[in-house]
């Protein structure tokens, strides 16, 4: 693609893995790549839009996001919807933006055209998505979608919770967080991953498990991969840093699906990352207006499920990683290099000759307390309010130039297409 250039680095650094020491209290990291962001524009721009989401990204050291196909209206399930997305994003993006398509009942014939038009993969659900216009696939439809997608070697991204297991679980309603966790048990993720693993094996498709929450799935994924199944997985900052036993009843800022589980489960996710079974850490940034969080009643059944953390992910994860003895270079691999490779952007997410000159200037020991008023997200709703986190992004560079977020700044982000 003509507009993806390599620039000289802004300093003459000594390269140490993915982290370049700047000789001060700062290090230079590659710009992070977040392959799981719900921008919601057009159609639900009052939830989140391209300008606000990409400003938040830039403030958090993220230079590339890939937008999920749902929660915007129309959802990105055909060429007209992809064109609408690009029109909405044009001129508003402070960082680079790519798009995923959706695989929904009835749009099988649209998948290849979307691929040819540059989407980075396809997302689907196995149970209701939360919005009526993005329906789930049956197991049969899932198999057919994989067979279609393997023909052009794209990737199928799956919200992996098994519908019947959740239907059979107790209701989520009420203020008690424990009841919400019980309504979406680990076995729902396990059964979904079993299905995905079987179908990926049968079809040869590349399948990616989104927002893994249950550590019980890790051995299944590891075994499938050892067997040659093309299965990858991601988890999110909230699953790695928060724990069910610490979630206050009625505080629906913590609601997301699948849910934040207990602390011992969190440890198994870290083990899964360390062993390489879980490939990447991405935000699943999924905001909504505060009223949809139902803070008045604190009802976990009725509240929108989603956590917005595009701006905070690095500091949140680094704080927990540092405590667990995990190097910053390892965090960078999970949050930049691996997601870039996953979506097929090998010139992003690394500091290397020939790579795009996207950087985050990060002060890893400059600890801060999260103040929602500093967030660029459209709505400053966050479960991290008041939490101490580690490190501060001081500047973010896009293609060799610092990103300005001032009132007169011109957005310089580009709309990316796969393979362009
Ligand atoms: Zn999501």
In short:
Helix content is 30%, strand content 15%. It contains twelve helices and 17 strands. α4 (139-151) crosses α7 (186-203).
Outline: globular
Number of DSSP strands?
A: 17
> How many individual helices?
12
- The helix/strand series, from N terminus to C terminus, equals EEEEHEHEEHEHEHHHEHEHHEHHEEEEE
Topology:
Blueprint: E1 15-16, E2 19-21, E3 27-30, E4 32-37, H1 50-59, E5 62-67, H2 79-89, E6 96-99, E7 101-102, H3 108-116, E8 122-125, H4 139-151, E9 155-159, H5 163-168, H6 177-183, H7 186-203, E10 206-209, H8 218-226, E11 231-235, H9 237-241, H10 263-274, E12 280-281, H11 313-323, H12 328-343, E13 359-363, E14 368-369, E15 388-389, E16 392-398, E17 401-402
Parallel strand pairs: 4-5, 5-6, 7-8, 8-9, 9-10, 10-11, 11-12
Antiparallel strand pairs: 1-2, 2-3, 3-13, 13-16, 14-15, 16-17
Helix pairs in contact: 4-7
């Amino acid at each position: 693609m003509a507009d993806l250039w390599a620039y000289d680095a802004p300093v003459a650094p000594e390269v140490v893995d993915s982290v370049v020491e700047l000789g001060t209290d700062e290090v230079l990291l590659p710009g992070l790549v977040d392959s799981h962001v719900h921008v919601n524009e057009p159609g639900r721009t009052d939830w989140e839009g391209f300008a606000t989401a990409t400003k938040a990204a830039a403030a958090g050291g993220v230079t590339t996001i890939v937008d999920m196909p749902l929660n915007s209206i129309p959802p990105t399930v055909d060429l007209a919807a992809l064109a609408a997305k690009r029109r909405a994003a044009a001129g508003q993006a402070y960082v680079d933006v790519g798009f995923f398509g959706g695989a929904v009942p009835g749009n099988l014939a649209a998948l290849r055209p979307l691929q040819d038009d540059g989407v980075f993969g396809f997302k689907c659900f196995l149970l209701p998505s939360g919005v009526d216009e993005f329906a789930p696939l049956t197991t049969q439809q899932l198999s057919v979608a994989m067979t279609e997608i393997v023909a052009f070697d794209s990737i199928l991204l799956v919200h992996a919770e098994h519908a019947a297991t959740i239907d059979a679980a107790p209701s989520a309603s009420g203020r008690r967080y424990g009841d919400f966790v019980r309504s979406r048990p680990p076995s729902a993720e396990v059964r979904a991953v079993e299905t995905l693993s079987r179908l990926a094996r049968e079809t040869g498709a590349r399948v990616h498990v989104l927002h893994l929450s249950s550590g019980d799935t890790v051995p299944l994924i590891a075994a499938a991969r050892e067997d040659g199944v093309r299965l990858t997985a991601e988890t999110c900052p909230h699953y790695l840093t928060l724990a069910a036993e610490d979630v206050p009843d009625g505080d629906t800022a913590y609601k997301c699906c699948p849910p934040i589980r207990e602390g011992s489960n969190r440890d198994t996710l870290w083990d899964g990352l360390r062993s390489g079974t879980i490939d990447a850490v991405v935000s699943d940034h999924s905001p909504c207006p505060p009223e949809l969080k139902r803070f008045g009643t604190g009802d976990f059944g009725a509240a929108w499920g989603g956590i917005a953390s595009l701006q905070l992910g690095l500091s949140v994860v680094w704080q927990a990683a540092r405590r667990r003895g995990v190097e910053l270079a390892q965090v960078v691999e999970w949050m930049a290099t691996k997601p870039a490779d996953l979506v097929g952007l090998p010139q992003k997410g690394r500091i290397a000759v020939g790579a795009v000159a996207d950087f985050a200037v990060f002060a890893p020991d400059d600890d801060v307390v999260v103040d929602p008023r500093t967030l660029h997200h459209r709505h400053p709703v966050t479960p991290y309010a008041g939490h101490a986190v580690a490190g501060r992004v001081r500047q973010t560079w896009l293609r060799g130039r610092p990103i300005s977020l001032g009132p007169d700044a011109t957005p310089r982000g580009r709309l990316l297409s796969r393979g362009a």
